[in-house]
Q: What sequence folds into this?
């Protein structure tokens, strides 16, 4: 059976078609758009909050999207252990919705960045990294003006202790440096997961890096990970476990 992706569309989303294309045409899975005013995910196996400018980024990025009716269903899906991926603006929505800790600030140079960057896979026990190698370097594109991740020192320490930092900006050889951090994000954080590990947010765009013809196919492994997990039955939706990954057998 194929994996069903639900791609949430907000007014101003502009990477929804990229996510749909990656899921349906590159991976050959089922994919459906879900309008932000809908109230059901209609049996989805995976939820994606795509990049763009939800509600025109009024107030703050993602600040209005968190009140969209579909977010109640997304929260319930995540509470049951369902895999949720927020990319760029989708990551910002997850932060505003309180599904991930911290906040996004303007890039430290106050400029919009559209370029390829390198990120290092820090943890492989999430639905979106289980097919990755720890320490693997991915070349992915970014396109954002507010990707400067910030959290208070105690929150940052807890994220590190709980292994919730999933992706970190590095250079091509995997070294963390100020020069390799495109937006000034705290500790070079490019992506996080929730305490239950099934909700993941990242600023770079894996859906725009699924075919080598566009400059990189490194993002494909993130989608392959969740498809592999759903097929193998290692992703469990259960309020009693609170865990995204379970051993089989």
A:
């Amino acid at each position: 059976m194929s994996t069903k992706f639900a791609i949430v569309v907000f007014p101003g989303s502009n990477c929804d078609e990229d996510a749909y294309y990656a899921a349906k045409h590159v991976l050959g899975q089922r994919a459906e758009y879900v309008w932000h005013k809908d109230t059901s995910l209609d049996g989805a196996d995976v939820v994606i909050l795509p990049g763009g400018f939800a509600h025109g980024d009024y107030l703050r990025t993602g600040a209005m999207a968190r009140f969209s009716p579909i977010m109640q269903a997304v929260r319930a899906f995540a509470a049951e252990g369902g895999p949720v991926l927020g990319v760029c603006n989708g990551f910002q929505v997850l932060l505003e919705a309180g599904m991930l800790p911290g906040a996004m600030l303007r890039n430290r140079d106050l400029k919009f960045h559209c370029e390829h960057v390198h990120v290092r896979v820090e943890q492989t026990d999430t639905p979106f990294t289980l097919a990755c190698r720890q320490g693997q370097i991915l070349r992915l594109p970014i396109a954002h003006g507010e990707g400067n991740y910030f959290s208070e020192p105690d929150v940052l320490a807890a994220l590190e202790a709980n292994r919730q930092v999933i992706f970190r900006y590095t250079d091509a050889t995997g070294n963390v440096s100020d020069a390799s951090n495109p937006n000034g994000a705290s500790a070079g954080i490019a992506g996080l997961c929730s305490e239950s590990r099934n909700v993941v947010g990242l600023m770079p765009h894996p859906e725009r890096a699924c075919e080598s013809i566009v400059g990189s196919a490194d993002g494909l492994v993130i989608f392959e990970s969740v498809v592999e997990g759903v097929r193998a039955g290692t992703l469990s939706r259960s309020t009693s476990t609170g865990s995204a990954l379970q051993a089989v057998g």
